[in-house]
Structure of Large ribosomal subunit protein bL21:
Amino acid sequence: MYAVIKTGGKQYKVAAGEKIKVEQIAADVGQEIVIDQVLAVGDGAELKVGTPLVAGATVTATVVAQGKHDKVRIFKMRRRKHYQKRQGHRQTYTELEISAVQA
């Protein structure tokens, strides 16, 4: 059984036992969270799509880690204008382990 969830402005296809990295969620490591923004639930050839959410469907997950992705370097330059700008960014994430998908 799998589900399509929405968190942090993005959509993820998840199944029980998987680990995913999502936008940062304010939760402690080891804490269990319930995601109720479920857009679709599938089981084999059967698919239940919500309008926009599936009523009563939840996904239970445990917070495994909080961290930062690798640095993304931004370099801007205008040729012949003596303009160079360097900037870096590290996006924060929360790593979740999906425990169960309830339809």
In short: The chain has a mean pLDDT of 96. Residues 2-102 form one domain. Residues 72 and 89 are 5 Å apart (CA to CA).
